[in-house]
């Protein structure tokens, strides 16, 4: 990917030569150059050489001063053919010395510089991203690390092993302009010498490196591994090889892992299929790789696979169930809706303060004891309307109670351990009769639950029976 370096310059000129202080302020975005970098980690870390990112403040001062004098102060700058990056002069006798003072960054011409790094990705649609510097390199051939925003899933290069023998055939790859589907990278055959750390080529490399290939990866032609980065080196000298070991060391010092992205494995399989003549397999893998990242390189290989007759495999259709019944997703949706309704009812019941009574596990009655009455339903929620229900049918072995009876006489106490008899179905009609004053009631006066003789608390609602009678 291509890296463009610029600087935001704030400049202020203070003129007090006339006895009155006059301040002129300007702001400029100064383009400083471009280079090439390579992604080495799936989280968007780009490696390049520091010579591409080192800000020349003298160059920034010239550019910012020219724009300040022409656009803010309003005097012409001549002698530089209109190029704000070059020094010039002004025919104004008063402002002429002040222009030169700003070139020299004297005390009454203040300059603030903020570097800006922009990474242009090699995608089918032109794109770019701001980047931040992760480490603090100083020498031109030091490894500089940038992190771009939104770099997850981007293609990454694989660094060659530090103990690997130098590759016999290598290529220098880089961009001399903004990358795009119609602007692929330049590939220059070079010879990289790991012992002397020099890069040589049939043609002079100084021009391509100045045009933007500086910092680009030197690739092993057989494996595609990065054996190092290319640096321009001293004037007139061969290009410098910054070995892969230096890149790995810089990443380790910055706490960055050389992790691959999901795109990498799929793309490599597609390229392998294409090299083996399997056009269908190549088309399928390369098309899948584009779902991870909009790589112009993958798109170009996919076009090549299609030109060879390759057809991507159709994605498997999702099962919708049988024709005569609802689909599995529909059944899951219905079950989920039913569960949601049930949970809503439970929440509403709890908010009304009417929790359902817990189930009672009754012990089996002793041999010979009469069968107990059927279990009573839970009491209705407070405030709810109660619908009258028909009285339960009498069993064959019990006689109907006399209608004029006002109280029910308690029978003999059941054997110890016998569970209390369940209350018959309550209706909205006549309330269950209370026991005579001073005697333990057979039914709770609060909730109507049947209680055993001499019981002090109701098992249904917990009401103290003696207190309830009072």
Describe this structure in words.
The protein is an alpha+beta fold. Among the domains are: 277-307, no CATH class; 438-470, no CATH class. 23% of the residues lie in helices and 21% in strands. The strands form 2 sheets. Strands 2-1-5-6-7-4-3 form a 7-stranded antiparallel beta sheet. α5 (262-275) runs parallel beside α7 and α6 (279-289) packs antiparallel against α7. The N and C termini lie far apart (91 Å).
Structure summary:
This protein has 470 residues and is of the alpha+beta class. It has 9 helices and 13 strands.
Largest sheet: 7 strands, antiparallel
Gyration radius (Cα, Å) is: 44 Å
**How many DSSP-defined strands?**
13
Spatial separation of the terminal alpha carbons:
91 Å
Based on secondary structure, the structural category is alpha+beta
Oligomeric grouping of the chains: single chain
Strand order of the largest sheet: 2-1-5-6-7-4-3
State which percent range the strand residues make up.
15-25%
Overall 3D geometry? flat
SS field, number of helical segments: 9
SSE topology string: EEEEHHEEEEEEHEEEHHHHHH
Q: Give start-end ranges of low-pLDDT stretches.
A: 316-376, 381-414, 421-441
Kindly report the average pLDDT value: 77
Portion of residues within helices: 10-25%
């Amino acid at each position: 990917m291509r890296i463009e370096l610029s600087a935001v310059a704030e400049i202020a000129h203070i003129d007090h030569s006339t006895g009155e202080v006059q301040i002129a302020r300007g702001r400029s975005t100064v383009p400083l150059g471009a280079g090439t970098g390579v992604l080495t980690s799936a989280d968007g870390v780009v490696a390049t050489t520091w010579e591409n990112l080192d800000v020349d403040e003298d160059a920034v001062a010239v550019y910012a001063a020219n724009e300040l004098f022409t656009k803010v102060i309003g005097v012409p700058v001549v002698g530089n053919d209109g190029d704000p990056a070059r020094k010039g002069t002004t025919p104004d006798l008063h402002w002429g010395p002040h222009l030169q003072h700003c070139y020299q960054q004297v005390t009454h011409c203040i300059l603030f510089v903020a570097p800006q790094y922009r990474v242009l990705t090699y995608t089918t649609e032109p794109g770019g991203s701001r980047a931040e510097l992760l480490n603090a390199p100083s020498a031109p051939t030091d490894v500089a690390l940038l992190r771009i925003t939104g770099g997850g899933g981007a293609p990454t290069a694989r660094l060659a092993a530090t103990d690997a023998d130098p590759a016999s055939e290598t290529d220098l790859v880089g961009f001399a302009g903004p990358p795009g589907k119609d602007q692929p990278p330049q590939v220059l055959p070079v010879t990289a010498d790991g012992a002397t750390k020099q890069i040589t080529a049939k043609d002079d490399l100084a021009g391509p490196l100045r045009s933007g290939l500086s910092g680009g990866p030197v690739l092993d032609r057989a494996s595609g591994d990065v054996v190092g980065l290319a640096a321009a080196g001293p004037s007139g000298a061969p290009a410098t090889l910054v070995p892969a070991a230096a890149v790995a060391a810089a990443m380790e010092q910055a706490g960055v892992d050389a992790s691959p992205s999901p795109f990498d494995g799929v793309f490599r399989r597609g390229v392998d299929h294409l090299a083996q003549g399997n056009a269908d397999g190549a088309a399928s893998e390369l098309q899948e790789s584009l779902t991870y990242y909009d790589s112009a390189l993958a798109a170009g290989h996919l076009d090549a696979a299609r030109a060879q007759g390759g057809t991507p495999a159709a994605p498997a259709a999702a099962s919708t169930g049988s024709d005569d019944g609802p689909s599995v997703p529909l059944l899951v949706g219905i079950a989920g809706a039913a569960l949601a309704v049930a949970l809503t009812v439970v929440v509403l019941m709890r908010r009304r303060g009417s929790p359902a009574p817990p189930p009672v596990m009754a012990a089996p009655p002793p041999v010979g004891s009469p069968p107990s009455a059927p279990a009573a339903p839970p009491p209705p929620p407070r405030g709810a309307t109660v619908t009258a229900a028909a009285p339960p049918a009498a069993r064959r072995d019990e006689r109907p109670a006399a209608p004029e009876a006002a109280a029910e006489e308690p029978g003999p106490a059941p054997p110890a351990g016998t569970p209390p008899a369940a209350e018959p179905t309550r209706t909205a009609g006549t309330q269950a009769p209370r026991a005579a004053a001073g005697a333990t009631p057979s039914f709770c006066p609060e909730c109507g639950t049947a209680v055993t003789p001499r019981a002090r608390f109701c098992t249904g609602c917990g009401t103290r029976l003696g207190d309830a009678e009072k």
